[in-house]
């Protein structure tokens, strides 16, 4: 099956996004931090984006990239003349599931250290998608955690989009000195709200040890502290005094068995490393998604949970349980 692609409406009709160009930049990203609003059409195996409304657009979502994104400065810095970006490739599409329990916690998994891409990072379940976007995300949730969500027992809503480029074996290239991007994709974060509690979901989890080495559930207060470190380059704001020093997690052994793990809060708050080591931390895109989740949660509860600077309100409607395939 052909790889899922990202299409842009730039001159009146959809065209493939170029590997060598920043999607944020092409859609009008200005200097400074985003996110930037984009209009989206969510189709099986593809995502159509535009800075303006267009026929078929079904959502208006925030699009963000890391503040240290090489594409933002790629054409401003000298590099090896022999090093070239591909001109015959497009931008791939990934889907990640932010799974919320009925008691308002979200699931994160730590990718196995043996994986060739993004080892040892804390992320939500997900992967490249080549079929219906929700179905692809739910399939990855099942493959990684063993969780199958019965049809009619969850609702979902698109949260936002994250542009990321990765080098060989790593999802993040904070510095051009680490090499030019090898891969370029847009991650669509989908919030899936289960009718089951954290305890009920946890009891059904059967993690895949080839993909997942640990998992944990974050409460809103912990998620807010993690999201506050999103920019990855500055010391986080003053953290709440009642923030716990650690959170409970589950570590996955090679044979698939599990054991309790005390995960230091300092690991979750860790920012971008200064060396190209596979340091355990929460990915920058995940921090962005947690911030969007908190905004959504605050609107649903009539409260304000502050993960950082005030953000624009986005046009996102919660889709009812009947729209979830549970596949």
UniProtKB/TrEMBL annotation:
EC class name: hydrolase
UniProt-listed PROSITE patterns: NUDIX
Domain of life: Eukaryota
Span list, region Disordered: 304-327
Required co-factors: Mn(2+); Mg(2+)
GO biological process: NAD+ catabolic process; NADP+ catabolic process; RNA decapping
Molecular-function GO term, any one: metal ion binding
Record field: catalytic activity: a 5'-end (N(7)-methyl 5'-triphosphoguanosine)-ribonucleoside in mRNA + H2O = N(7)-methyl-GDP + a 5'-end phospho-ribonucleoside in mRNA + 2 H(+)
GO cellular component assignments: cytosol; peroxisome
Domain Nudix hydrolase: 90-240
The protein's name: m7GpppN-mRNA hydrolase NUDT17
Organism: Aotus nancymaae
């Amino acid at each position: 099956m052909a790889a899922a692609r990202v299409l842009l409406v730039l001159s009146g009709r959809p065209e493939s996004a170029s590997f060598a160009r920043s999607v944020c930049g092409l859609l009008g990203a200005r200097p400074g931090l985003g996110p930037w609003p984009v209009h989206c059409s969510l189709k099986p195996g593809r995502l159509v984006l535009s800075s303006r409304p267009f026929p078929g657009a079904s959502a208006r979502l925030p699009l963000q990239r890391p503040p240290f994104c090489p594409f933002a400065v790629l054409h401003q810095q000298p590099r090896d003349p022999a090093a070239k970006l591909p001109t015959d490739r497009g931008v791939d599409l990934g889907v990640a599931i932010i799974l919320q329990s009925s008691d308002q916690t979200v699931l994160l998994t730590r990718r196995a250290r043996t994986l060739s891409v993004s080892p040892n990072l804390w992320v939500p379940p997900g992967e490249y998608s080549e079929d219906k976007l929700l179905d692809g995300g739910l399939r990855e949730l099942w493959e990684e955690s063993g969780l199958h969500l019965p049809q009619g027992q969850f609702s979902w809503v698109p949260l936002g989009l994250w542009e990321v480029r990765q080098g060989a074996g790593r999802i993040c290239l904070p510095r051009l000195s680490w090499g030019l991007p090898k891969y370029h994709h847009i991650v669509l974060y989908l919030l899936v709200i289960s009718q089951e509690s954290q305890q009920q979901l946890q009891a059904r989890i059967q993690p895949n040890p080839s993909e997942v080495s640990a998992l944990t559930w974050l409460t809103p207060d912990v998620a807010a502290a993690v999201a506050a470190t999103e920019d990855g380059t500055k010391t986080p704001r003053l953290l709440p005094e009642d923030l716990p020093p650690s959170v409970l997690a589950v570590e996955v052994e090679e044979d698939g068995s599990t054991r309790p793990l005390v995960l230091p809060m300092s690991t979750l708050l860790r920012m971008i490393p200064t060396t190209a080591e596979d340091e355990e931390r929460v990915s920058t895109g995940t921090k962005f998604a947690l911030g969007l989740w908190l905004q959504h949660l605050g609107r649903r509860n009539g409260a304000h949970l502050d993960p950082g600077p005030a953000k624009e309100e986005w046009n996102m409607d919660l889709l009812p349980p009947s729209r979830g395939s549970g596949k």
